[in-house]
Specification:
mainly alpha, globular, transmembrane helix, membrane
């Protein structure tokens, strides 16, 4: 890896830290948080559709494999959401919240690991995809309030 690649990979990390600092001083309303998260999800899906899927399809992956992978990934992320919500609910019932929330920490870890995986896939695809993926995840991490809150 060269310096340029490290700089590109550093963009989401720096912005995630900035999002954590912002989250420490600003608490958005439920409506604002929902709007921000839906906008960020739309940006991520647009980047996926425009940048990564054409690169993968050029590698001769059948359309059925792409659609199935997207569906399985979506189901997996939804199952993780349900699992972390159940963990949070169990913690709130027991009232034993001391220090970090395990569910939020786990969700943040999974989110950051997924971000890194997709940016790495962009690097593997070559071309300018890695730059676009890095910039999209910069925006996504900036707008993602719960992960920002967990970073601090």
């Amino acid at each position: 890896m060269n310096t340029h690649q490290f700089l590109i990979m550093g963009i989401p990390a720096v912005i995630a830290l900035a999002g954590g600092i912002l989250a420490a001083f600003w608490t958005p309303s439920h409506t604002a948080r929902s709007l921000i998260q839906h906008f960020a999800a739309g940006v991520v899906l647009a980047a996926l559709a425009v940048e990564l899927l054409p690169e993968i399809s050029r590698a001769h992956a059948p359309g059925l494999v792409l659609a199935g992978s997207f569906a399985l990934g979506s189901l997996f992320m939804y199952a993780l959401k349900l699992w972390t919500l159940r963990m949070e609910h169990a913690t709130s019932i027991s009232g034993a919240v001391k220090g970090l929330s395990t569910g939020l920490l786990l969700a943040t870890f999974i989110d950051v690991a997924t971000d890194g995986f997709i940016i790495g896939a962009g690097f593997a695809a070559g071309g300018e995809t890695h730059l676009d993926a890095g910039l999209v995840w910069w925006l996504f991490d900036l707008l993602e309030y719960p992960a920002g809150r967990a970073m601090i």
